[in-house]
Write a structure and sequence with these properties.
alpha/beta; CbiD-like; 5-stranded mixed β-sheet
Amino acid sequence: MTETYVYKNQQKLRCGYTTGTCAAGAVKAALQMLLGGKVVEHVSVTAPKGTVLELQVQEQQLGEKVSCAIRKDSGDDADVTNGIRIYATVWKADGEEQDCSGGLRERRNRWENQVWIQGGVGIGRVTKPGLNQPIGNAAINSVPREMITKVALSILEQYGYEGSIHVLISAPEGVEIAKRTFNPRLGIEGGISILGTSGIVEPMSEQALVETIRVEMRQKLSQGMTHLLVVPGNYGEQFLRDTLQIDVEKAIKCSNFVGETIDMAYEYKADSMLLVGHIGKFVKLGAGIMNTHSRVADGRMEVLASCAILAGVRTEAVKEILNCLNTDEAIAILIREQMLETAMDILMKKIYYYIENRAYTGMTIGAVTFSRQYGLLGMTEYAKEMLDRLRGV
């Protein structure tokens, strides 16, 4: 690949590329071989963030079905999928719409009328709600699907081919690798996920990431923004923009480091801080877990179950919650039991107790949590007033 570096904590670190980039590169090379009839050794892919990557193509096989692989390179970032081979097999559809992977037919979005994307061996299958893809789909997330479709359509246009094609993404090594991830707990069975929003893996140590948050906070405060808005990541930004109608440029990304971010705001004497995040992370705050990374602690279902008990949910339903794999599944049970609002009120009180104590009563603090499937779920005390202030109401 074309080597790209970042400097973090005074260290020069080599970037890698995502499984989504690998899949898109393999598809591009396979289609060039299918329509051009010649072996392709290297292929260039433009990642969503604009970086052009030169990728080596491996294990080329020509015929009516063409396949090849791209080896994942995570750069200097520790990643369980580093070195895994992502394969693409492509063939002309010839008017047939069968799912040749032997699995469920994929639900196609508006980009997939000509490019039929399927998941093969080693690609997980979504079995639970609340994930990036619908139940039954291969765990190939939306951005990689767009990348695959974009490169595929460009090659079809280049060769003047107007028919449809099948694209089968597979990763045989993913069957075993997935057992070392949280995919089974999340409801993704049988393999890894094809991921990536930027297409690039930027290595970053935890210390460096916390320092980046500190720098961003100092910048906001120096610009006169004493009422801070904090989100863990992209889901929070999307909710700010689409639901809360707040400019995402106002937000600081804290990743999983909620506690450290509160500490910084207290240190810099911010007037207030509003945290806005997905319940999958923020439910952990209800147990005082201030680093929300899955490797630090889980406790999601235990916290929701305790809130359900306090809300008066019947015992059998609480047991169901404890066996859930993700928060949307648990929320569905609370809705069925007509106890969602009561349980969320209890959860938000728990969250407020812990974040206020972390702030040492030195500033006004609040939190908002949501689900991508169910929308706004709850706000702590003062959160509404803080939202109004941020909107300029």
